[in-house]
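Reading is simple: the token line describes the chain's fold. The lines below illustrate.

. . .
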Amino acid sequence: MKAELTPSLWRDGWYRFAKHTHSPNFGPRPANTSIDLMVVHSISLPPGQYGGPEIEALFTNTLDWDAHPYFEQIRGAEVSAHFVIRRDGALIQFVSCDDRAWHAGRSSYQGRDNCNDFSVGIEIEGLEGQLFEDAQYETLSSLCAAIAQHYQVHHIAGHEHVSPVRKQDPGAGFDWLFLQHSLGWPDQSFPLKN
């Protein structure tokens, strides 16, 4: 009797359980870079509105800049993240984790600059400082565990921790302690002792 092979969770940096929507906004990581950090962000477009196509449009350079007055503030932005987690927990991947997504900007973590070089960026649909959904934490926890297993990543921080002067997301509404308990990771894996 022939044994069935279990499909791999990863192929060329693409996660099997995510919808794949390719962003042109990425580049190669520096040679010999160890991917050892996950950065959690929050995003909603327009701010406070959920479920529309605007995030995907932004990350694929197809956003109609004239569709909402807020978009004038970000006109021409070429950004991406590796993943977006929707309010219902749906997961979209835009950039292979083997590549460098454009999510953190000017940043530093534990004395290392340019976090995009060595991190995986995860956007959670929501407004900075506000609460997130249980389904999002469930998806995030599963995703973080899969990334950690494949890339040997054991550190996670918010955008607010890697770019504290510029950014405040995901903010006070994000439950770091819940995520830590879900993952079972030690305090030193997180930016602040909970």
